[in-house]
């Protein structure tokens, strides 16, 4: 029973390039959450998605960031025209339901913008 | 503003000793409180989850307590092991939303 999978584990991008982060939830989970962890900071909620729907994107920056969770395939967090401040660890979590349900975290993708 | 504050920021203890980590929150209305363990370079792993009606919950050597009146929680680790060295994160969910609100964590180092 594989856990939450994220890839790549490490990603290096030059300023101005695009970054695509992938997350495959645990089997049977249809709820996906993305979090960002800046150095020396706690995790910050970005977006919550169910299959084909964005439920809560209150933590997403207004520009350059987007997320999707298609009917088939992994959830994608996309960052366009990356800047140095985007360097962080991005974690994905999945759950069977919301709020009171357990969220299981992936190993994270560490994005470095040079 | 909904906040979760943890103390101490870091802690060093000898193997075999007990320790208690603290969490204060201002999230309201409150739904549940979770403690996670995060090893360096890895994603958080859940230790306990408590609703507002629960006062205590145990998971092996980890025992979490919750006082919803004072908005405080603690995580007690018994007979610490070297593998307990990690960051311990207090996380609160409000009834108003689906987002988890994370504290910055307490970094625990267990030495032999």
Strand content bin of chain B: over 45%
Identify the quaternary structure here: heterodimer
List unreliable stretches of 5+ residues of chain B.
Answer: none
Greatest interface: A-B, 26 and 24 residues
Characterize the structure shown.
The complex is a heterodimer of chains A (114) and B (112). Chain A has 114 residues and is an all-beta fold. Chain A contains no helices and 11 strands. In chain A, strands 2, 4, 5, 6, 9, 10 and 11 form a 7-stranded mixed beta sheet that branches. In chain A, a hairpin with an 8-residue loop joins strand 9 and strand 10. In chain A, 34% of the residues are buried. The model of chain A has no long low-confidence stretch (mean pLDDT 92). Chain B is mainly β. Chain B contains no helices and 11 strands. In chain B, strands 2, 4, 5, 9, 10 and 11 form a 6-stranded mixed beta sheet that branches. The radius of gyration of chain B is 13 Å and the shape is globular. The N and C termini of chain B lie far apart (41 Å). Chains A and B meet through strand 5 and strand 10 of A and strand 4, strand 5 and strand 10 of B.
């Amino acid at each position: 029973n594989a856990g939450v999978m994220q890839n790549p584990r490490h990603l290096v991008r030059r300023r101005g390039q695009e970054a695509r982060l992938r997350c495959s939830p645990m089997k049977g989970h249809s709820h996906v959450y993305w979090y960002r962890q800046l150095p020396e900071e706690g995790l910050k909620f970005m977006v919550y998605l169910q299959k084909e729907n964005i439920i809560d994107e209150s933590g997403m920056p207004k520009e350059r960031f987007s997320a999707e969770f298609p009917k088939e395939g992994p959830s994608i967090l996309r960052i366009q025209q990356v800047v140095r401040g985007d360097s962080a660890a991005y974690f994905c979590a999945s759950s069977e339901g919301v709020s009171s349900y357990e969220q299981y975290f992936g190993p994270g993708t560490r994005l470095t913008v040079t | 503003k909904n906040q979760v504050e943890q103390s101490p920021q870091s802690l060093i203890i000898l193997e075999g000793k007990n320790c208690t980590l603290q969490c204060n929150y201002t999230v309201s209305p409150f739904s549940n409180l979770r403690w996670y363990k995060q090893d360096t370079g890895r994603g958080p792993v859940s230790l306990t989850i408590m609703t507002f009606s629960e006062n205590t919950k145990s998971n092996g050597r980890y025992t979490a307590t919750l006082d919803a009146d004072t908005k405080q929680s603690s995580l007690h680790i018994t007979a610490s092991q070297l593998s307990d060295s990690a960051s311990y994160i207090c996380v609160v969910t409000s009834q108003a939303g689906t987002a988890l609100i994370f504290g910055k964590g307490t970094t625990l180092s267990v030495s032999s």
